[in-house]
Amino acid sequence: EFSTEAEFVNPSKSFVLPDIICTQCNLCRHVDLCREPGLMDDLSALDDRDEVVQSWQCPRCTHLYDLDMLEHRLVHVVHTQHSLPYQLRELVCKRCNLPNESQLNTLCGCTGTLSLDENASNVVEIDEIFRILLHLAKHQRFGYLQETMERLMH
Question: How many domains, in total, are found in the chain?
Answer without folding.
Answer: 1
